[in-house]
């Protein structure tokens, strides 16, 4: 038999076989898109590429995009005044693996448009150029892809009127409208984000899409973005986004310092013959530290990171012109404060948080990766790292990079954490109280705020046999900070409400807050429990003793100490007593609690005024005792009335 040569790509195939092959290609593309923000990312990425392309051809042109998020209609509309499509390109750009982008555009694989058309069931596309104009809609794309019966006909684009009315007024550009309807799609609606206003959606889009560009080494060409949001009730809000840049944490969190500023200040102090370790007061009690670096900081022999990188990593850093940013916060609570109170998204759905954000071609790619710390792992949750590679190719769904780039990014994350840890003494101590990340209030506002707090949350102790002769503490309202906790605790000691604890030392500079002793001395009746006259007492039959000096920690909330223990700043084996206003909500994952204010546990109370014993959840061993002042006050006022709460919270948990 004679062998013949042939081209396997140009082989003639039956139309049915071709159709099935195309469907398999599309299915493979759709499998790579699993993120909730993928449709927004693809739509915005295409719009920014279009205006970038036109700007290169016309320097006098002003790039602009218009975004409409309609929660009532479950529709995303994005229109740009960019380059637009010629007729032949417009008719083919939705097909898999067809792309007309340049290599340095945001995405050049020809899969994003296919994902939008066939990953959903309603996509309208329109274009306008000097030579061609058309608007059409494709329906049922995803349902056709998922149909295994072969009964559904492959959908075609039908001419229609532009949904986004902005399109009628532009001279040139494109419009896309994606409606979340039908089966098999993700997400099914836009309300899951928890954003319903233009301000909220502006934050979401700048963190999760190309609208928040990573422009370390180049200029952002987009100078105008009009964002319109219609909530599920039809109420419309609008916002002009002029800073189309990623939201770096230090730009929305107050009281942060750049490491380069710290180093420069130290050099200035040395030149003045001063101690470089004694920085000005403005460098202390910070919410966060941050810094920018470039690939020169990896490959240079004079780099602060010298000796930390392999030759292979240096080559990769130079090849991809690596740029990276790090932020190191004082507490994970700053993320909750920003998400819940400032942006106002769904609770605990942190839109900004600790982790590694990979980026390429000026665009964040995929979800945050975990910084792989092997010790002091709590710091992985307070550190936010952005790593940008030039011309790196992520996978089809823009989620993952080549393993060597991912490993380099993880190594960078660890190095950045270690670099910041050298300066953590400059950060605010973790207390568990809500952080102030929008800037310190002036004195007038502070006084007014405290007056309101005093009215809404007065500190009331109704027992008449404490704080004699005044019968009331001098603190007028419930604590709002660690300093308030210290003041209240000292009043309770001085007033004899809590007995037997002797404070030996207090420090704001040492690793721990203070040193104390327990003293059980005559007359012992002062310490013995009596339901009516001494409800905070211990059971009878105890002998006199004086304990060895031990470590005391003050916190607004137990949560604050848990976070410091997880970071490695504090050692739970060294803390022998916790004084806090509230228990917080992080303890159930790490500890078990014996409630000493529940009368069935009276025999476990071994010092006057103790409220809880903290135990290891894994071993059941006692870790340290605690005095939780809010629960102690409630117990003083009504011992019987708190029994159900103590049982339900700690015994039946």
What does this structure look like?
The protein has 653 residues and is α+β, with helices and mostly antiparallel strands. It has 3 domains: 225 residues, Heat Shock Protein 90; 166 residues, no CATH class; 198 residues, no CATH class. Helix content is 27%, strand content 19%. It is built from 16 helices and 22 strands. The strands form 3 sheets. The chain has an 8-stranded mixed beta sheet with strand order 5-4-3-6-2-1-7-8, with helices on one face. Strands 15, 16, 17, 18, 19, 20, 21 and 22 form an 8-stranded mixed beta sheet that branches. A 6-stranded mixed beta sheet has the order 9-10-11-14-12-13. The chain is elongated, with a radius of gyration of 31 Å.
What is the topological layout?
Elements: H1 15-31, H2 38-57, E1 65-70, E2 75-80, H3 87-90, H4 112-118, E3 122-128, E4 133-139, H5 141-145, E5 158-159, E6 173-179, H6 198-208, E7 225-230, E8 236-241, E9 256-258, H7 259-271, E10 288-294, H8 296-299, H9 311-319, E11 323-329, H10 333-343, E12 355-360, E13 363-364, E14 383-389, H11 403-421, H12 443-456, H13 482-494, E15 501-506, E16 514-520, E17 545-546, E18 550-557, H14 558-567, E19 575-582, E20 591-595, E21 612-616, E22 622-628, H15 629-637, H16 643-651
Parallel strand pairs: 1-7, 9-10, 12-14, 18-19, 19-22
Antiparallel strand pairs: 1-2, 2-6, 3-4, 3-6, 4-5, 7-8, 10-11, 11-14, 12-13, 15-16, 16-17, 16-18, 20-21, 21-22
Helix pairs in contact: 2-4
């Amino acid at each position: 038999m004679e062998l013949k040569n042939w081209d396997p790509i140009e082989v003639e195939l039956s139309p049915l076989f071709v159709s099935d092959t195309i469907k398999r290609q599309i299915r493979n593309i759709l499998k790579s898109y699993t993120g909730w923000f993928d449709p927004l990312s693809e739509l915005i990425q295409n719009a920014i590429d279009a205006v970038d392309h036109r700007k290169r051809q016309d320097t006098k042109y002003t790039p602009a995009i218009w975004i409409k998020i309609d929660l009532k209609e479950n529709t995303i509309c994005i229109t740009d005044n960019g380059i637009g499509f010629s007729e032949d390109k417009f008719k083919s750009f939705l097909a898999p693996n067809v792309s007309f982008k340049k290599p340095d555009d945001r995405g050049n694989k020809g899969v994003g448009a296919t994902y939008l058309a066939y990953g959903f069931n309603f996509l309208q596309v329109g274009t306008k150029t000097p030579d061609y104009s058309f608007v059409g809609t494709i329906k049922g794309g995803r349902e056709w892809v998922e149909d295994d019966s072969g009964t559904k006909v492959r959908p075609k684009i039908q001419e229609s009127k532009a949904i986004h009315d902005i399109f009628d007024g532009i001279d040139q550009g494109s419009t896309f409208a994606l409606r979340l309807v039908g089966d098999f799609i993700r997400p099914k609606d836009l309300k899951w984000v928890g954003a319903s206003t233009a301000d909220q959606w502006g934050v979401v889009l700048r963190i999760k899409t190309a609208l928040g560009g990573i422009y370390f080494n180049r200029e952002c060409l987009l100078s105008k973005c009009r964002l319109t949001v219609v909530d599920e009730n039809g109420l419309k809000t609008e916002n002009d986004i002029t800073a189309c840049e990623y939201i770096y944490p230090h730009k929305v969190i107050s009281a942060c310092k750049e490491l380069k500023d710290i180093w420069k200040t130290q050099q200035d102090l040395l030149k003045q013959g001063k101690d470089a370790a004694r920085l000005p007061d403005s460098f202390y009690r910070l919410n966060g530290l941050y810094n920018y670096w470039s690939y020169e900081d990896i490959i240079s022999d004079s780099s602060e990171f010298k000796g930390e990188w392999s030759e292979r990593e240096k080559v990769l850093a130079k090849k991809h012109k690596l740029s990276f940013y790090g932020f190191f916060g004082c507490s994970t609570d700053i993320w909750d404060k920003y998400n819940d109170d400032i942006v106002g998204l769904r609770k605990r759905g942190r839109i900004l948080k600790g982790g590694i954000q990979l980026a390429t071609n000026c665009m964040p790619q995929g979800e945050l990766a975990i910084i792989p710390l092997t010790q002091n792992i709590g710091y992985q949750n307070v550190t936010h790292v952005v790593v940008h590679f030039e011309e790196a190719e992520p996978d089809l769904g823009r989620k993952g990079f080549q393993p060597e780039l991912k490993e380099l990014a993880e190594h960078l994350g660890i190095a950045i954490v270690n670099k910041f840890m050298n300066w953590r003494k400059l950060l605010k101590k973790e207390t568990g109280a809500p952080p102030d990340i929008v800037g310190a209030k002036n004195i007038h506002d502070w006084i007014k705020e405290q007056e309101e707090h005093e009215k809404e949350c007065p500190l009331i102790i109704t027992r008449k046999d404490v704080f004699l002769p005044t019968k009331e503490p001098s603190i007028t309202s419930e604590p709002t900070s660690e300093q308030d906790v210290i003041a209240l605790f000292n009043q309770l000691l001085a007033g004899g409400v809590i007995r037997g604890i002797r404070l030996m030392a207090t420090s704001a500079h040492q690793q721990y807050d203070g040193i104390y002793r327990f003293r059980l001395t005559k007359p012992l009746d002062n310490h013995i429990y009596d339901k009516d006259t001494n409800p905070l007492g211990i059971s009878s039959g105890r002998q006199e003793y004086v304990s060895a000096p031990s470590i005391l920690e003050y916190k607004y909330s137990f949560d604050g100490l848990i976070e410091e223990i997880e970071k490695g700043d504090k050692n739970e084996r060294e803390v022998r007593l916790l004084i806090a206003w509230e228990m917080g909500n992080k303890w159930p994952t790490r500890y078990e609690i014996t409630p000493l204010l529940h009368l069935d546990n009276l025999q476990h109370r071994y010092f006057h005024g103790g409220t809880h014993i903290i135990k290891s959840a894994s071993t059941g061993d006692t870790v340290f005792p605690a005095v939780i002042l809010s629960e102690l006050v409630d117990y003083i006022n009504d011992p019987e009335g708190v029994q159900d709460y103590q049982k339900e919270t700690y015994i039946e948990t």
